Amino acid sequence: MEMEAGGPTSEKRMRVGEDEGGGADRISDLSDAVLGEIISLLPTKDGARTRILASRWRHIWCSAPLNLDCRGLARCGELAAAVISHILASHQGPGRRFCIRHGFRGYRAATVDSWLRSPALDNLEEFNLHCRRQHQVMLPVLSEPFFRFSKTLIVATIERCHLSDNTVQGLQFLQLKQLSLEMVTISECSLQRMIAGCPALECLLISYCSGFRRITINSVSLRSIGVRAECRWASERKFEKLIIENAPSLEKLLHLDWSTGLDMSVVFAPKLETLRCSSEPYNIILLGSTVIERLRINTLATVVSSIKILAIALDILSLDIVIGLMRCFPCLEKLYIQSFETGPNNLWRRKHQNLVRCHDIRLKKIVLEQYYGVMSQVSFVTFFVLHAKVLESMTLRIEARNSNEEFFAEHRKKLQLEKRASRGARFKFTTNKCFRNIWDIKDFDDLDLADPFTC
C-alpha cells in the first residue's frame, strides 16, 4: 500500500527525481561529437558561453564546427575585427557557417582575406557576405581564398556587391544547394556562368539585382526560384525576363514583387506546382504556348495540370480573371488572393454557367485579403461558396472595425453559407494576416516550405 501511494526505495526515488529535472546532468552524458553539433547550431555568443558551464565543456566549443556570425559581436568595427581574428585563431575548426557584414572600419580587404584562409574555416558549408554599396573595392574577398570552399560550400548568400566577370570566371561550387543574390550587380554572362557552375543547386533567390536583362535557367536540380525584379538603382540595367528553359525538378516559381514588370517564360518544368504572380501591366507569362498577360488568359493553347498552389496580386478583384486562371490550371487546390480595389460587380449567374455545368472546381482552400463586404466581393465569394464542392476552408481578412457578431451574422447570410456546396467547408473571418506575402518570404527556409504562403 505504501509503494502504491508513492513510497519507493531510495534508488527509485533518485531516478524519479532525475526524470523530473532535479537530478543528474543528462546532457553532459552525451559524447563530445554530439555536444559539438548542438553547440554549432547556437548563435556565436551563446556557443562561446557554453565554455563557462563546467570544465567538461571548456574545450568543446573550440573543437565544434564553427558557427561564426559577425553581427552583434561588437559595435565598433575595429573591435569586432579583433574579436573575429581572435576566434579564428583559437578555434580548431572545421567551419560550418561564416557570416560577415562588411563596411565597418577594421574590416579591411587584407584582414578579410586572412580570415578566409584560416584553418578554422576549413570545409566551410555556409557563407554569408554583406557589403555596403560603397565598398565594392573589397571584391577580392571573392577571389582566390573564396575558391577554396568550392568543394564544401552548401549555402551562399551574397549581398550588396559588384561581381565582376573576372571574379565569377572559374567559380564552381559542386555541392552548393542554396544561392541568394541581393542587390548584386553582375553581367548576364557572369550570372549564367555562376548558375551553371552549381550543378547541385536546389534553391535560387535573386532580389533587387542589376546589370542583366534576362536569365535563362537550365538546371536538372533546381526546385525553387524566387525573384524580385525591382532595381534599386535607376541608372543600372534592369532585370526584365526570366526563361525557364529546362528545369525538370522545379516545383516553385515565385515573382516576389508587387508591380514590377517581369516576363516569365516556362518552356519545360513538368513538376511546377506553386506559382506567384501579379497583374502588373507589363507582366507576361508564357507557359508553353499559353499566354497570360496581366493575369488574363490571352491564348489558352494548353492547360497546365501541375499547378496546385497559386498566389496572385490583383489591382482589381475580378472573378473573370480567377476563372480564366482556373481553366488554365484545372488541378488548382489552393488560391491566395490579394487585391487592392473592389472593382466591378463580379456577376456570374449567366456568364459562367458553362463552367459550373462542365467543370469541377477542385479548390480546397481560398484565402482573400481585404474583405470589406461590398457587393463585388460578396458576389465573388458566393460563387465559390455555391459551386466549390470539395472546398475545405475559406479565410476572409476583415478590418478590425468589422470584427463583431453583427457583421458576421450579416455576411453569413449574404454569402449564403447555409447553401454551401461543400458541407464540410469551414469559413473564417479574421483580422489577422491571412497568408504570408512577398515581404515574408525572405530566405531559403521561407522559399523551401511546402506551401510558402501559409501563415
Oligomeric state, counting identical vs distinct chains: single chain
Shape verdict: globular
Would you count the extended β strands for me?
A: 22
Q: Give, in spatial order, the strands making up the sheet with the most strands.
A: 1-2-3-4-6-8-10-12-14-18-19-20-21-22
Strand content: 15-25%
Description:
The chain is of the alpha/beta class. The chain has a domain at 308-455. 24% of the residues lie in helices and 24% in strands. It has 14 helices and 22 strands. It has helices at residues 10-19, 32-40, 44-49, 60-63, 77-90, 109-116, 144-147, 165-168, 188-196, 319-328, 353-358, 375-387, 405-414, 444-447; strands at 66-69, 95-102, 126-131, 155-159, 162-163, 178-182, 185-186, 203-207, 214-218, 224-228, 241-246, 252-255, 263-266, 274-278, 284-287, 290-293, 296-299, 309-316, 334-341, 365-368, 393-397, 426-430. It has a 14-stranded parallel β-sheet. Strands 9-11-13-15-16-17 form a 6-stranded mixed β-sheet. Strand 15 (284-287) and strand 16 form a beta hairpin. The longest helix is centred in the first third of the chain and has 14 residues, at 77-90.
What's this entry about, in short?
This protein has helices at 10-19, 32-40, 44-49, 60-63, 77-90, 109-116, 144-147, 165-168, 188-196, 319-328, 353-358, 375-387, 405-414, 444-447, and strands at residues 66-69, 95-102, 126-131, 155-159, 162-163, 178-182, 185-186, 203-207, 214-218, 224-228, 241-246, 252-255, 263-266, 274-278, 284-287, 290-293, 296-299, 309-316, 334-341, 365-368, 393-397, 426-430. With 455 residues, the protein is α/β, with parallel strands linked by helices.
